[in-house]
Amino acid sequence: MDRDIDFLMSKKQAHQKITMLTCYDYPTALLEDKAGIDIIFVADSVGTNVLGYESATEVTMENMIHHLKAVRRGVTHAYLLVDMPYKSYDTPKIALENATTFLSHGADGVKLEGWSEKEEVIKILAENNIEVCAHIGYNPQIHSRAWTHGVTFSKAKALIQSALTLENAGAKMIVLEMVSEEVSKIITEKLSIPTIGIGAGKFCDGQVLVINDMLGITALDLRHAKKYQNYQNLTFQAICQYKEEVENGVFPNEASVVSMDEQKLARVEKWLKGSLS
Ligand code: KIV
Hints:
By secondary structure, this protein is of the alpha/beta class. Helix 2 crosses helix 4, helix 5 packs across helix 6 and helix 7 packs parallel to helix 8. The protein has 2 domains: about 220 residues, Phosphoenolpyruvate-binding domains (TIM Barrel), CATH 3.20.20; about 45 residues, no CATH class. About 40% of the residues lie in helices and about 15% in strands.
């Protein structure tokens, strides 16, 4: 790994933007790593984006380990971050056990959701030299609906206090999800650790997007997620064309098969008629 925590910190200090993308599989990991993404993130959104779950709360440790191992095989340079799934960090003891399991499967650090109430959990992980990314604002494992946080005085105060508390507890970076741009700017300026925004505006030290959203695999149109491709259309068109070509005998064609030598074929035909053993 070239992009360790010190490297990410130095990017913040040099005002160079940090790039982070979710990743759920080996071929995508190879591409993200080749493109020079700083943080490749095995997110629990694998549940809704890949596994067909209704909610992030259905994702298990086993699911995460399965995808972490696949992504690990494709990452050489990036920092490999993994999400702690729902209920896997309810107490400091459970969190330490599960985070240690992720590290043994190749994660460089773990991310967990929660505001200042997660202080003790982050403290114990940090004391055990586990690098933690905190995650405040909208927390999909906790909040049933997505909305922007930090538009009222009390929420702005709670977000800023939480960010400071979690940094103090030992967090090495923090995701700000759906946080007003003004509050994200204040937090970014106040913290010495990098802030990574999603739907939190341009002042964060870095940005994260969900790969399925930015590739247009996701059907939804999300305000915070720019679609850089429309893979849903491209994939659907390709599937329809394949179906049509198979049904019409266009595929496979001459170019996609290997033919048998005529003499050898003649021997097989003789054998079929019983005149050759
Ligand atoms: O699970 C997820 O996709 C996330 C986002 C913040 C990227 O946690």
